[in-house]
Design goal:
The complex is a heterotrimer of chains A (348), B (296) and C (385). Chain A is α/β, with parallel strands linked by helices and 348 residues long. Chain A has twelve helices and eleven strands. Chain A has an eight-stranded mixed β-sheet, sandwiched between helices. In chain A, strands 2-1-4 form a three-stranded antiparallel β-sheet. In chain A, helix 2 runs antiparallel to helix 3 (94-104), helix 5 (138-148) packs across helix 6 (154-167) and helix 5 (138-148) packs parallel to helix 7. Chain C has helices at 47-54, 87-93, 105-108, 115-126, 128-145, 149-170, 175-180, 191-207, 213-217, 226-238, 256-273, 284-290, 308-313, 318-326, 362-366, and strands at 3-15, 20-32, 36-40, 62-72, 79-81, 98-101, 244-248, 276-281, 293-298, 301-307, 372-375, 378-380. Chain C has an eight-stranded mixed β-sheet, sandwiched between helices. Classes of the chains: A alpha/beta (348), B mainly alpha (296), C alpha/beta (385).
Chain lengths: 348, 296, 385
């Protein structure tokens, strides 16, 4: 399996402006140094609570947001990446570095290159009630990417839209309707059809089922499974529900306050979590099994503001295992066997 | 149920909005068939908008066989004046509002969508215009350019566009944050496409409501300018002009204060009903398009 | 266990532009004293509407069409028919005997008042008598202990205060204090009531495990996090020691770790206060965490009512089973329910689940199955049983 998306030391800070002159007086560190690779054909789950930066990360990866620093490589061979790393560490010949980055790093793309990238990578939003234009017919919504990228027109375009809609489980007869005439699950299917229109290789999903009912959620997840197999897609799947990530994803990254604290295969994360935060996340997840409700760990306190994160390990104020080291130093993400990585000085 | 059917039913269901529709339809009818309702005399064929006059006596004459609404100061025929004046009213109202809405959409959506320095420049210009008292600015413009119906239109356009630009900007600002705008950008849509296909269709309704309410207000302002003598040339069929003629005849001679009632009342009533009609219609549109009044 | 609420044949309909929606259709449900009853269902199942109907707060254009909701007051032992109660008597029950916690904690709090003010308000509305009694005790203490010149001057005023608080303690709606509380400036003479209310408020906030309760009481809602706001709302709901606490998706807008804290709190409330809780949720996992019994609803009707253990170990109704199979669980293949939720305007005849049911029979298409007991504490509305 080769790497499709390679995220390196990615940071996205939103400035906080204040004072009369609206000068930046601080920054919300939504994503603060994330390195992550997504292999071709992988279904990567990104799990975390609100404010941990998972949505920002996804939007930065599909270039709806421009990163503050760091690199995002989309389908780039290893050689130029290594070259860039070497040049960066040597800190010389900035012109050569700049031209290399312009060729390879998604973060520096503009104009035509972004447009080409948009055909290959798509984002599906969280809330299907707001992600579709309420004043646009479904067929136009689904056809929009085809029109923008001048892929198909006329009769071929209509046929393509019909095929897409039937593929996601809607009937072609519903093409002339407006979004408000559909249920939440159907709207999410429409949004998925729109994302599929340009035959992308990579789709990022931002909690696509959190606004949906349980039974509809299962339908959508199974649809995603089928589509992935059929079109050979690569998914970045964002969710706050560990159970969903565990049941559908191949690999899970747990985020806390703008950083990845643990990565591993679903069964590793769920059964042998090594980071204290991942452990309490697993414990806090309500499971429909009354036998399980005794003896759980309830994590004290709340997530600190990403505008003013604690020093050292950002989790230390809520951590029962925190030592002096944790207050001062930032634990690096290190392998603990196989594909399992943890950023903790005192892993479980 | 389709949207327009729902809209139509809502319009008809409310008696007040129905009244508004009826009033406006009657005025449209009058405007279209003016040449049949009040035929232009042979001598006037070249300039049908000039009210024919029957002599030069200053004192208004009461309604009679020849002049069914009577004549006003200078023996201008009131009936001819109000019928053909309907056309002037529509011209002023629709042209001013049309231009203003276009300017407003253009500047407002640029300011709202792009924000930053573009927004700053456009909004400070609107602030400058809004800082003047509207009617006084309009008077100054008409006085500078010379009174005529077209100058009135220009003057009213200049004073009305800033509020439209502001309104559209606000609504675009709100819509800009919606997920479907971001989704469209994520598909690779250009700014022009996002504004025209997504942002505007969702942001334009409040503006259309305000426009329909404002048509009456614009006609009222135009009448006010004419009343002050800063409007159409003397003798032009225009309701404001007719009320202006009646300025000296509002109160009759001692002992008979209502002697010249027709001179001021009839053009006044035309203005009143025209404005009322648009206001009722605008209210009806607002009720229908108000998102808080979802279909129930 | 005795019943606290008995709902019989409850029907709620919405008269919309498109047609009549049967939001709740002939619902029979009991809430027992001291239990946590969960109502589980998907969108449009009528679970929230059931909760609102108990408080008679069904929003326009909905209407409680028929049925009865009997409230068996545990303190007085009397039984009241809530649907026939006068509006002012109903108001005395809302927020007092029966209180509610909503999904969005932000929406339940007024942004222009401090948390403390808003909770005190509840005490001042429903607990005047107790506030009067506490205030009088305080004044009496002053009368007994106070000596010296200053106290001598204030003595007549204290006597008057003691008398008026005594009146409030005896009869909260007595004429004199009521008049007094309506006259500007003069109503400030009753300041001790407010003081007592804010003391009780801080106790209440401590009770829902808010750290630094006195500081939080002085803060405005926007200064608190979502979890803290929800705690404050729960404190407000618990202010009058209600006999029934209705919680409508109270943890849905919260993060998982905060949700776990909140579920812990709900469990403790039930144990400490002995109040019944009606817990409306779409999340079966959450229901399994806090509920004693669970009622499953589909398209305005009850499918199954049973203990939480029974529900997850021996679910009977095909809908319940399908719903449980649709929940993602580690190492389990996701099952889906075929078809879409029943159309609220044109629900299918007979059993409303029959178009999606794998074991539907012709009878299911024609006649509605009744809710019947198949075991102790296990009722199901299905012809299979």
């Amino acid at each position: 399996m080769n790497t499709l998306v390679d995220i390196r030391r990615l940071k996205k800070h939103f400035p906080i402006r204040g004072g009369v002159l609206r000068r930046p007086i601080g920054a919300v560190k939504a994503v603060d140094g994330v390195s992550l690779t997504i292999k071709r054909g992988q279904w990567l789950g990104l799990v975390g609570e609100s404010g941990c930066g998972k949505t920002t990360l996804a939007k930065t990866v599909v270039r709806l947001l421009r990163p503050t620093s760091g690199h995002v490589y989309f389908d780039i061979p290893d050689a130029p990446k290594a070259q860039i790393e070497a040049l960066e560490s040597a800190d010389k010949n900035s012109r050569e570095l700049a031209s290399l980055l312009k060729e390879n790093d998604l973060a520096t793309f503009s104009g035509h290159r972004v447009q080409l990238f948009r055909r290959r990578a798509q984002l599906v939003h969280q809330d299907p009630f707001t992600s579709l234009d309420p004043r646009m017919k479904i067929k136009n919504t689904v056809a929009e990417p085809l029109i923008i990228h001048r892929v198909l027109s006329g009769q071929a375009q209509q046929t393509a839209v019909k095929d897409l809609l039937t593929r996601v489980g809607l009937s072609a007869g519903q093409m002339e309707r407006y979004p408000h005439q559909f249920s939440g699950g159907q709207r999410q299917r429409i949004a998925i059809a729109r994302a599929l229109a340009t035959k992308p290789e990579f789709i990022a999903f931002d909690e696509p089922t959190s606004a949906l009912d349980v039974s509809v959620q299962a339908q959508i997840l199974n649809l995603l499974k089928d589509l992935k197999k059929e079109f050979g897609l690569t998914y970045l799947y964002i969710t706050h529900e560990l159970l969903i990530a565990e049941s559908v994803c191949d690999y899970i990254a747990v985020m806390y306050l703008g950083k990845v604290v643990e990565m591993g295969r679903p069964e590793e994360i769920f059964h042998t979590p090594r980071h204290p935060y991942a452990q309490s996340l697993v414990a806090a997840t309500p499971v429909p099994d009354p036998a399980r409700r005794v003896g759980r760990i309830v994590l004290p306190g709340e997530v600190p503001s990403p505008a003013n994160p604690p020093p050292g390990c950002t989790f230390h104020p809520r951590c029962s295992r925190a030592s002096k080291e944790c207050h001062e130093l930032e634990p690096p993400l290190e392998p603990v066997g196989g594909d399992h990585y943890v950023a903790c000085f005192h892993p479980l | 149920m389709t949207d327009w059917k729902f809209t139509a039913r809502q319009l008809v269901r409310n008696p007040l909005s129905l009244l508004g529709i009826i009033i406006i339809v009657i005025f449209v009818f009058i405007a279209i068939f003016a040449p049949l309702i009040a035929p232009t005399p042979e001598s006037h064929q070249q300039r049908p908008y000039m009210i024919p006059r029957d002599g030069y006596r200053a004192q208004p004459e009461p309604p009679s066989e020849d002049h069914i609404f009577g004549t006003t100061q200078g023996q201008y025929d009131i009936f001819y004046g109000v019928i053909w004046g309907t056309r002037s009213a529509f011209r002023v109202g629709l042209v001013v509002i049309g231009i203003v809405v276009v300017i407003g959409i253009l500047l407002g959506s640029l300011a709202g969508y792009f924000g930053g320095i573009v927004d700053e420049i456009i909004m400070r210009i609107t602030d400058v215009f809004l800082a003047f008292p509207a009617l006084i600015l309009a008077m100054a413009i008409v006085a500078a350019l010379g009174p005529s119906l077209n100058t009135v239109i220009i003057a009213l356009t200049v004073v009305s566009w800033p509020s439209y630009a502001r309104l559209i900007r606000g609504d675009i600002l709100q819509v800009r944050e919606e997920d479907y705008i971001e989704a469209s950008r994520g598909l690779g849509a250009s700014s022009a496409r996002v504004i025209l296909r997504h942002a505007l269709p969702n942001a334009i309704y409040p503006t259309l409501i305000m426009a329909s309410l404002d048509i009456g207000a614009v006609v009222l302002s135009a009448a006010a300018l004419s009343f002050l003598g800063l409007g159409a040339p003397e003798g032009y069929a225009d309701w404001g002009q007719l009320t202006s003629f009646a300025r000296n005849w509002i109160v009759g001679p001692p002992g008979d204060p209502l002697k010249y009632w027709y001179a001021v009342t009839i053009p006044g009533l035309f203005i009143l009903f025209f404005v009322l009609g648009w206001n009722l219609l605008g209210d009806a549109f607002r009720d229908i398009f108000d998102p808080r009044l979802a279909r129930r | 266990m005795k019943d606290l609420i008995r709902i019989r044949d409850l029907s709620v309909r919405f008269y919309t532009y498109e047609g009549v929606v049967h939001a709740i259709d002939d619902l029979d449900l009991d809430i027992r004293q001291g239990e946590t009853l969960g109502i589980v269902g998907e969108t449009g199942s009528g679970k929230s509407m059931t909760a609102l109907a108990i408080l008679r707060l069904v929003p326009y254009p909905g209407k409680i069409e028929s049925g009865s909701i009997v409230f068996c007051d545990r303190d007085s032992g009397g039984e009241v028919e809530l649907l026939k109660l006068r509006e002012d008597r109903m108001r005395a029950i809302r927020g007092n005997k029966i209180s509610m916690v909503f999904q969005e904690p932000g929406a339940a709090l007024n942004p222009v008042y401090t948390i403390g003010d808003q909770i005190s308000e509840v005490f001042l509305l429903h607990r005047r008598q107790e506030l009067g009694r506490r205030a009088r005790e305080r004044v009496d203490n002053l009368l007994n202990d106070g000596n010296g010149f200053g106290a001598g001057l204030k003595r007549p005023f204290w006597h008057w205060q003691s008398r008026i608080y005594d009146k409030i303690a005896e009869e909260p709606h007595a004429l004199e204090p009521r008049l007094l509380s309506h006259i500007p400036l003069f109503r400030r003479l009753l300041w001790r009531l407010k003081d007592e209310a804010s003391l009780l408020t801080v106790d209440m906030l401590k009770d829902v495990e808010i750290p630094d309760a006195a500081r939080v009481a002085a803060e405005y809602p926007h200064e608190l996090s979502g979890g803290m706001k929800q705690r404050a709302v729960i404190a407000m709901a618990l202010a009058c020691s209600p006999e029934l606490l209705i919680a409508d998706e109270p943890t849905t807008s919260l993060d998982v770790t905060i949700q776990a804290q909140m579920l812990e709190l709900f469990r403790r409330i039930k144990a400490d206060k002995g109040a019944s809780v009606l817990f409306v949720t779409h999340n079966l996992g959450v229901a399994s965490e806090v509920c004693d019994r669970v009622a499953v609803m589909y398209a305005g009707r009850l499918c199954e009512v049973c203990t939480v253990e029974e529900l997850f170990l021996h679910p009977l109704h095909p809908y319940t089973r399908a719903l449980l199979d649709a929940v993602p669980m580690p190492g389990k293949e996701l099952q889906t329910i075929p078809g879409a939720l029943a159309d609220a305007l044109n629900p299918p005849p007979g059993c409303r689940f029959h178009p999606r049911c794998p074991s539907a029979t012709p009878l299911c298409q024609q006649e509605r199955p009744k809710l019947k007991a198949v075991a102790k504490d296990h009722m199901v509305a299905c012809y299979l049983f």
